[in-house]
Amino acid sequence: MASRRPGAEEWVPARPSLRTLRSAVQECRGCELYRDATQGVMGDGARRAGLVLLGEQPGDQEDQQGEPFVGPAGRVLDEALADADLAATDVFRTNVVKHFRWSGTRGKRRIHQSPNKGHVEACRPWLRAELALVRPRGVVVLGSTAGQALYGPQFRVGESRGRALPWPDDLDLAHPPAWAVATTHPSAVLRARDERQAAYDALVADLRVAVRLLGA
């Protein structure tokens, strides 16, 4: 019988701050991903950001640098935020899973492998702590893993993107976000190749929905 993942709850500080969360995640043994990752990567951004950008997990460069969205997908996201008139200083960026899952290498780069449901569940206490501290008005869900972490396995980006979604109530937050907006992960733009511009324009359009909701 496979051993049950303990989850991250026991490693989350009782009275957390963003600084203590970044320190505490380095000791997390809530699932096995810590064994092959360089470090845990918590979110980064404004302490009282109106908007949280929620992705899947750190990538190769994020794992090395210890910051979210600093690799190629992060550069796409930076450009899209600017085109959507969202100041980078007004958002908080994080991922549902805090350690990099990878399988094999291509040259010097480690190949991304998506986290499974057990990894997402194990990391939920970290996400809950971040959202409780930041108290955003809304969340932009970047991709299917983040969407399924909030809305369950039935979630599909294509069916849900570009509109306000009601916030799920199972994270037990005292001050939950009012809404979420789903869109593709910026890494999907990089994979689009011949349709890259269309994929990028759709990402920007979804981010503009969040901008309008913030201004409402």
TrEMBL record:
Domain of life: Bacteria
UniProt key word Hydrolase: yes
Family membership: Belongs to the uracil-DNA glycosylase (UDG) superfamily. Type 4 (UDGa) family.
Protein's recorded name: Type-4 uracil-DNA glycosylase
Listed GO MF terms: 4 iron, 4 sulfur cluster binding; deaminated base DNA N-glycosylase activity; metal ion binding
Keyword Hydrolase: yes
GO biological process, one term: DNA repair
A Pfam family the protein falls into: UDG
Transmembrane segments: none
Annotated organism of origin: Nocardioides simplex
Keyword set, alphabetical order: 4Fe-4S, DNA damage, DNA repair, Hydrolase, Iron, Iron-sulfur, Metal-binding
SMART domains: UDG, UreE_C
Cited InterPro entries: UDG_Type-4/5 (IPR051536), Ura-DNA_glyco_family4 (IPR005273), Uracil-DNA_glycosylase-like (IPR005122), Uracil-DNA_glycosylase-like_sf (IPR036895)
